[in-house]
Amino acid sequence: MLFDTFRTLALALAVTTQYAFAQRFYGPEDPRLQIQITTQNPINGVSKTPDGRIFVAYARVDGSTGPQIAEWDQTTNTSTAYPNEKWNSYSDGDDPATHFVGINSQRVGPDGNLYVVDKGATAIGGAVMFPYGPKLVVVDTQTNEVSKVYFMGNVTRSNSLLDDVRFNPITGKAYLTDAGSPGLIVLDLLTGNAIRVLDDDASTGATTAVSAEGTLLHLGSKPAFIYADQLELSPNAKYFYYQPASGGMSRIETKLLDQATYNSSLNSNSVLGLFVEPYANTPSTGGTAIDAEGNIYVSDVDSQRIIKIFPNSTMTLLVQDPRLLWVDAMWIDLQHRLWLPAAQLNRGIPFQGKNLEEAPLYVFSIDIGVGPSQIDHA
Ligand SMILES: *[C@@H]1O[C@H](CO)[C@@H](O)[C@H](O)[C@H]1NC(C)=O
Ligand SMILES: *[C@@H]1O[C@H](CO)[C@@H](O)[C@H](O)[C@H]1NC(C)=O
Ligand SMILES: *[C@@H]1O[C@H](CO)[C@@H](O)[C@H](O)[C@H]1NC(C)=O
Ligand SMILES: *[C@@H]1O[C@H](CO)[C@@H](O)[C@H](O)[C@H]1NC(C)=O
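That's the Major royal jelly protein sequence above. Prediction below.
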């Protein structure tokens, strides 16, 4: 109890003065972490179907080649290109409409299918291939075939980095973040119509570069600004939460995002921006997840910890362990375990110019005593 209070206080201090205190955590290890996957190549996203199939995204920031999306078999500890080799075999000159060009994220959607976000560029900050590079690809997990592709060429820009997706089955919308050209995208899943909202709003942009292990990151010679990146929908669909990777989480009422698809006056002259509320003073973040009670888990890539944000926006420490090196897109499974892919992305080629990742890498999990938010989850 005392210890918990101390931890909460220490965390509050560290979070409010994040730049002064942001530093690498060297130990001790936390025995609650269970190793789920041991891998030679970084995995920056993991998701599961209700019947336990596991899908992973390979970030390839270590310079390795091979599939970007794969199914992981825990009985043999091997992975297989998913949905097949062809989608995963893009090379120069291939049709971007029928290949994964450059995957940023993947997740099992509320319908049990796998949704893959393709930034449509072969590298972070690379040239976006219009119009069929940037897309949301739906793989039917029953037939293991691509069942639908939402092309995002009309709502992305040459500097876009289509980042991640969440779903609102009540209104049939999907929401995506653009980490390259600050903004959000609202996609109608039935019609395929999409609009951009909160373009260049303070809440989708970033005033500082992202940092990790206590060091500001660069892309080439420039500070690495990673705009609207992490996103979550509250379990009752009322709020949409989002933030740049460098932190500072905002929220907006989801209904306003949905209304902007048919009320253009809401989406002009920065009107939507007036409804944005600051939510939590989060640190530099690799990924998030939200549970059935509306608690948001945030991975602090500076200090190798996972912060839990209660719905009243109070932050507390869930776990800190030196092995939690750039935990990226997390996942909560039906067994109440939070999956933590420690991708070491900051040590990869895009940020370092060479590969400084230390294999093997791990996907951990930890019991959080609560299941996933059902609205966005199969
Ligand atoms: C598969 O990998 C996990 C995690 O590293 C390990 O605990 C398990 O023993 C491995 N299983 C086999 C069959 O090698
Ligand atoms: C972009 O919009 C135009 C006009 O509505 C449409 O014809 C075209 O198919 C769209 N392109 C993509 C890639 O969605
Ligand atoms: C459209 O949005 C504007 C700005 O918020 C609002 O004043 C107006 O009532 C809305 N119109 C409709 C039809 O919802
Ligand atoms: C916020 O919620 C948490 C969890 O329910 C609770 O422990 C805490 O006291 C609340 N803090 C405030 C300031 O209301």
